[in-house]
Design brief:
The chain is mainly alpha-helical and 87 residues long. It has 3 helices and no strands. Helix 2 packs antiparallel against helix 3. The longest helix is centred in the last third of the chain and has 31 residues. The two termini are 38 Å apart.
Amino acid sequence: MKLLHLAAALVMSFFLSSAFAEETIMEKLDVQKNDMQRSTNKAINRAKEAACTSSEMECMKQKAEHRASEAYDATKDKATELKNKLD
């Protein structure tokens, strides 16, 4: 019986001591704003890449720069989101 109570107390402590806090409304709005900005930037980059009339090498360079910029923005936004969840 003691083992059952100990196990129940252990399980309850895991549920009650969550490492993630609720995001505030402002943080949720920031997430949505960041998602919209990334989507818009991605669409603009794809349009620029489709309209590229330079040499093949220049177009590939531009495409690589766009992908790197998009990856940087996504990583930065996800890190901020994670920080907000842990706060």
